Amino acid sequence: MKTSPSKSPTNLPYYEFHLSLRYLRSRFSAVAALLSVTFGVAVIIIVLSIMGGYIEALKESIRGQESHIMVMARTAFSVKNIVEVERLIQAVENVEATSPFIETLAMYRSGQFNPCHLRAIHPRQETRVSNVGEYVLRPAELDEILEKLAMDSPDKGYGGALQPSGLPLQPTRLIDEVLHAPEREPLGGQELEHFFDRDFSRELLENKNPSILPALEGTIPPVAIVGIHMLLDRQMFLGQVITIVTIKPESSEPKEERFLVAGAFKTGDYDADSKAIYVHVDTLKNMLELFDPEANSYGYSGIRVKVKDISRLDDTIEEIQTVSFRQRRDLRVLSWENLRGTLLTAVKIEKFVIYFLLVLLMSFTGLMVLLMLLLTVIEKTRDMGVLLSLGATPGGVTRIFLTGGLMTCVAGTVLGLLLGYLFCWNINTIHDWVLALTGRELFAARIYHMDRIPISFQLGDVLLSIAPPVVLGFLASLVPAIWASRRDPIKAIHYE
Amino acid sequence: MNNEVIYSARKIIKEYRSNRVVIPVLKNIDLDIHRGEILSIVGHSGVGKSTLLNLLGLLDVPTSGTLIYHGRDESIEGSDLSQLKNKTKARIRNREFGFVFQFYHLLPDLNLLENVLLPSMIFYRRLAFRDKRSQLEAKAEELLQRVGISQRKDFYPTQLSGGERQRAAIARALMNDPQIVFCDEPTGNLDTVTGAKIHELIIELNKLTSVSFILVTHDEALSNLAHRRLVMRDGVFVE
Q1: d(C-alpha A137, C-alpha A104), whole Å
Q2: β-strand partners of A98
């Protein structure tokens, strides 16, 4: 009989692992500790995945709407000689495309006045710099959706349409299925330009809203493509002629213009989808009277730029800064992250704070493991005395409980990760379920700017979820384990 | 039984201190244990019998005195056991000694076979134990058969009577082929008839093996069956 000095887990005396397993078996306290670790880990992974997904989706939606770089002036509507500035920027090596834009706040009237965000774009150029082509629904697609939702005529109200399963039809999901269908090609510049075609507008009016034609006296109003929620919330209908009021920057006088609701888009950003309206840049620049006779050119809000290689974004920004500086000293060059940076930073800080709070909560899990092991140690005091008298070492006794605690934590962590992943994978189904059962929306689109709960799994998040239970579990096991090994075998044996 | 001395205690003194008052428990004890003998130590409660047994079994350390052991382990030959490192003491307890307690002290989470195997589980490392498992289990079953409860090997201690539990405890004490088995009131918790059967078992096992049994008891019947009988009073042997 030879003993080996090696301390690898397979080479520890047999009784240690055998007994730590036996002590966990069918003990209520062990099950309670296991479950508390499981739920703790599951909650951390779920929260981190949702927060991570939210940050990802936020970035994606900002990037999609804003393009990589924005060149803007310090004062509104003052980027003049637009063609020349664009040409300068296009000469920068990493620049792929540019597109001018005008943005302003406005009110639209449809029954009552509502605020909106006017985004004037050059349709052909815009599709090359932003994701607008992915967001705008083709006329046929929109018709089909509105028909499914029983909203194809202004007299019908949405709300009655049901899924085959009997649950209320989720309009946003229906639209996402169309927009995110794998075979769907984003709209090209020509297709987007077609919306602003007079023949298209006339046809639309004749089909959807013929009663308005006499009042228009042969004129066709310019086209507006509106956020999908304005249609879904029945603020307006397809083919409706709405009035948009805004302020002219030069004279500060209100200016009113009629627009034809000719299409709809969905970015996934609830704010944009319920407030933004796309119009043609030429329409808005005339409506706002942005012509500056002195410069003999129109003033724009700025220019959107798309780069070829996103990893060289910072260098490209610097180059654009240099070339545009020659033209105008008050131009600012911003990346998409600069524009909404505070929001992103706030969400990231929030993620960290929530994680920190969850780890604090996890210390209760550590306490559960501690209590479970303390109970076992108290219950097994006599056993420890017997083991010591039969030749077990204090180190071995320590390891019985340490192994027990760690096994509980590891098993709980694995179960927790599984539970967390299962939950995350089905989170939107669960959400719809709760919605159908209670009528309560857990993830309100209008608060989170998103209409689906986004999920993102990252290795870092998994490690962050695993670390607290393992570390806390180890620390929580250490105290009872050492305590158990310090017991006096004689007293323990005579303890009956 | 022969006259070969395997364990000798010399000038053993054990004192307890509480609040600067010294309470002497063992006063200068000399004792030789012969190979294969049954030695009984009798005396009233509190005379120091169990303390002596704990010292001999290396569960406690004497205040002074030496313990010289002549066993199979040559590395400790001639050295004072009470001065050894805890780890070495644990090894001697595991390999050379066996223990039988008044309250049996079987582990309730293990079945009888596993309880008997426990000393070998402590001795062998995981891999070695797995390799020898069938061999060791056969040995444990044989021991259970010898103490007459092999049909109960899958039972848990709570399902057994006191006599059966004590038989299992004796089998456990013999698992690692010890030289000396220390029994602290082995029949103290049993009725007379069951106790007598345990006596017979100890005598039978002693005849079959050359293991020495040290019995601390105040059971007159048991002490009279021993080869040698020592009476203790106030921390010393009186006859």
Answers
A1: 23
A2: A305
Considering CB atoms only, which of A10, A22, A386 is closest to B127?
A: A10
Tell me: the pLDDT tens digits for A20-57? 888 888 678 888 888 988 998 898 888 888 888 888 88
Quick check: B43 and B99 in contact, CB under 8 A? no
Task: Copy the structure tokens of residue A330.
Answer: 């008050």
**Which residue type occupies A434?**
V
Confidence of residue A104 (pLDDT cuts 50, 70, 90): very high
Confidence of residue A257 (pLDDT cuts 50, 70, 90): very high
pLDDT for the residue B235: 85
Reported as a single tens digit per residue, the pLDDT across B171-196 is: 999 999 899 999 988 888 888 888 88
CA closest to B108 among chain A residues:
A383
pTM for the whole structure: 0.67
Rg for chain A, CA atoms, rounded: 32
> Which residues, including other chains, have CB under 8 Å from residue B138's CB and lie 6 or more apart?
none
Instruction: Give the mutation candidate from B81, B117, B121 for the A interface (greatest A CB count, under 10 A).
Output: B121
The helix (run of H) or strand (run of E) holding residue A399 is helix A394-425
Residues 6+ apart with CB under 8 A from A346: none
Dihedral-angle region of residue B163 (phi above 0 means left; psi in -120 to 50 means alpha; beta otherwise): alpha
| Chain B residues near residue A9 by CB distance under 8 angstroms | 126
Kindly state the tokens that stand for B27.
């006063």
Closest CA to A229 of A54, A450, A61, A434: A450
- Residue A392 to residue B123, Cβ atoms within 8 A: no
- Amino acid found at A321: Q
Taking CB atoms and an 8 Å limit, are B86 and A393 in contact across chains? yes
Which residues does chain B have within 8 Å of residue A7's beta carbon, measured at their own beta carbons?
none
> What tokens does B115 get?
């309880």
